[in-house]
């Protein structure tokens, strides 16, 4: 199965997934990574790993439809069957959803439906919850509202600083996302 990863920033989830694909643990073909931020670190990580990358920004287009149409061209050219969002900080619009709904997955750094949105870790921390977590879900037209595929809980300890807590959330992401992707790809191969 051909996949594309979309990311906006650091790219640690991208890196973990790319390494598992390159080692053969996840039997998919990673066709490219796309970043909607031309300066994102994820692009450097892609270069280091030899993964093709593309980048352009929404503000370079007159509408989200046109921006997403350009993405659609890339996806079609590379015959991508599954889009994997890994820190892609844009809401997926109708152009992509019409073509790919049910074939776009996302990772969110909280235990959905708790703390949706762009600040899942901070929001959980500020709410003083005893536990938060990490979720992988299908993407629909809402913000982090699509069907949940798999989640894990992450405890917040009394002794935690925000940094410790955040580190454990990311660690949980790096464990969960490859597991879920491997499962989805292997199921697709069987089908
Ligand atoms: C991750 O924590 C991911 O869950 C989050 O952005 C971070 C990206 O980190 N995504 C969202 O909050 C989406 N709502 P990374 O660039 O190091 O993979």
Reading side by side through the largest sheet, how are the strands ordered? 3-2-1-4-5-6-7
Give the biggest sheet: 7 strands, mixed
- Classify the secondary structure makeup into a structural class: alpha/beta
Distance between the termini: 12 Å
Number of spatially distinct domains = 1
How would you summarize what this structure contains?
This protein has 191 residues and is of the alpha/beta class.
Characteristic key phrases:
single chain; 191 residues; alpha/beta; Rossmann fold; globular; binds glycinamide ribonucleotide
Q: What does the model show?
A:
This protein has a single domain (2-113, 135-151, 174-190), classed as Rossmann fold (3-Layer(aba) Sandwich), CATH 3.40.50.170. Helix 1 packs parallel to helix 2 (41-49), helix 1 (12-22) packs parallel to helix 6 and helix 3 (64-77) packs parallel to helix 4 (94-100). The protein is built from six helices and seven strands, in the order βαβαβαβαβαββα. Helix content is 40%, strand content 21%. The protein has a seven-stranded mixed beta sheet with strand order 3-2-1-4-5-6-7. It has 191 residues and is α/β, with parallel strands linked by helices. Glycinamide ribonucleotide is lined by residues 7, 9-14, 86-87, 107-109, 118, 120, 144, 170, 173.
What are the SSEs and their pairings?
Elements (H helix, E strand, L loop, with lengths): L1 E6 L4 H11 L6 E7 L5 H9 L3 E3 L8 H14 L4 E4 L8 H7 L3 E5 L11 H7 L4 E8 L9 E8 L6 H29 L1
Parallel strand pairs: 1-2, 1-4, 2-3, 4-5
Antiparallel strand pairs: 5-6, 6-7
